[in-house]
Amino acid sequence: MYRIILIDDEPLILAGIASLICWEEHDCCIVGKATNGHAAIDLILEARPDIVITDIRMPVMNGLELIEACKEKNCEFAFIFLTNMEDFQLAKQAVHLGAVDYLVKLDLQPQTLIQALERAKEHCSRMESHHNKELYTLLLKDNQKQLERNYFSQLIFHPSDPELPSNPEIDARYESMYLILFQMKPEQILFGQAEAYDFSFISNQLLDVISGIGARYFSSHTILAPQKDTMLLVVSPKPESDSEKSLSEFCAKVNAAIGTYFALTALFGISQKRNNPLKLSDAYLEAQSALEHCYYDSSLRIVFYKSQYSRIKQPAQREFNINFLKKSMSAAVLENESQDLKEIFYELSDLFAQYKPDKTQAVSACINIYSYLHDLLQNESGKDNVFPYSIDIAEQLSQLGSLDDILLWLNSFCEKICAMLTDRKEKRSDKFVYMAKRYIHEHYREKLTLSEIAEYLKISPGYLSSSFSRYMNQTVSDYIAEVKIEHAKELIDSGQYLIYEIADQLGFENAYYFSKVFKKVTGMAPKNYECWRKLNQT
């Protein structure tokens, strides 16, 4: 059933046309009527008719203007114009706009209207056929692209499969191939930014941009396995082009485009040329190796793999351990000494620069430091949230492209912590808490009591107790126990002392009470801890 809309500024004409024929007998139905162009546009957008029959002359907006406005809004329908004899020139313009017929109102007969409707219905059928053909072409193109993606994915990621695919048609389109592996990242990532970059949100737009640029530089290209911030392309440069130049220009154009539209930058690793599709797995390793050079040298953006390159030897066999810095970090935080903490971070940066850990190791070390200081400062600030940013640190760090980026992030984290320590040091409200903690760390070998510490600070035991509990979220006694037991573990680890000797050195009344406190803090007795440490050292 074809949907019809009638438009005329004379209600009698509308009524006359509506009653001129039995519309249902001709597989048509009237779904709306309008008396002016503006109302007609709203009606057309809402009803989405197949055929529009409209007067050519109307006030405010005539029929020609109405059709042009509908076309601007991507409305597609067959249309028939109603005209008077003196509107013949306008009728000619209507035909140029694509009208299937025009009807003279004074001579309008049922048969004339039926003939015009048949022409309009034929036009609708042609439009539908055209759309179906376009849709079929698009589906065919999508299927071809998917076939290419599956073919190359199998060759690259599953080269040992005994039933590797063969597709001479695809091979003919990719006579010479390069693999481009590139990682995108925000232009700058610092600690404290609101959240990690959401690549999934822009993935479709990214694919469109990259594919559009690729079509200008390559005779064929396929985008494989886009994963968050990383993409892999199989490209075949145009035969007449300088391959290396066109590859460089493509990467530069992609970098410029994603910088403009998405505030991103990218690092590119490009393999050697391959003529044999069975060698694409080797090309993938080359592209990875080239991209790794960008990680270690932040000045590089586009790296071509050269035959003299070898895969970068990663120090994965050696542990990149930064735990030895934690004790001095803890002391700096305890004393609110921001300068001391900066010196520790300088030492950490020197270790990164000297050791050159791979990305996994570097990210792991940053998370380790972040977690340690976060927990330490959270405990000391009680209910206050030291880090008011809801960020996923691991996700954010994974988006960093080079070792220099990681060091920049680490420096921004240090600045945040040091600013907080400086602020805390200047506050009078928690001064006595820090003085009490300092006294405990300096006198942990003695038998410490709340009254003794309060007397030293020249404040009442009650004030010290309430202040300490409020800022530390634990009692003075619990904190004393934790400090003593930390030192007890060091003495046990040394293997030089018996349990009763350690208890005596740390100011406990006897070994029994020491064991009781040790178990409360650690969850195990000193003897069990000693055995556990020996097992973990073997």
Can you give keywords for this protein?
single chain; alpha/beta; 21 helices
Indicate the topology.
Layout: E1 2-7, H1 11-18, E2 28-34, H2 37-47, E3 51-55, H3 63-72, E4 78-83, H4 88-97, E5 101-104, H5 110-157, H6 168-173, E6 178-186, H7 203-217, E7 218-227, E8 230-237, H8 243-262, E9 264-270, H9 280-296, E10 302-304, H10 326-334, H11 338-355, H12 359-380, H13 393-398, H14 403-426, H15 431-442, H16 450-457, H17 461-472, H18 476-494, H19 499-505, H20 511-522, H21 526-537
Parallel strand pairs: 1-2, 1-3, 3-4, 4-5, 9-10
Antiparallel strand pairs: 6-8, 6-9, 7-8
Helix pairs in contact: 2-3, 5-9, 7-8, 10-11, 10-12, 11-14, 12-14, 18-20, 19-20
Structural write-up:
By secondary structure, the chain is α/β, with parallel strands linked by helices. Helix content is 57%, strand content 12%. The protein has helices at residues 11-18, 37-47, 63-72, 88-97, 110-157, 168-173, 203-217, 243-262, 280-296, 326-334, 338-355, 359-380, 393-398, 403-426, 431-442, 450-457, 461-472, 476-494, 499-505, 511-522, 526-537, and strands at residues 2-7, 28-34, 51-55, 78-83, 101-104, 178-186, 218-227, 230-237, 264-270, 302-304. The strands form two sheets. It has a five-stranded parallel sheet, sandwiched between helices. Strand 7 (218-227) and strand 8 (230-237) form a beta hairpin. Helix 12 packs parallel to helix 14. The protein is elongated, with a radius of gyration of 38 Å. It starts with a strand and ends with a helix. The model is unreliable at 311-317 and 381-385 (pLDDT under 50).
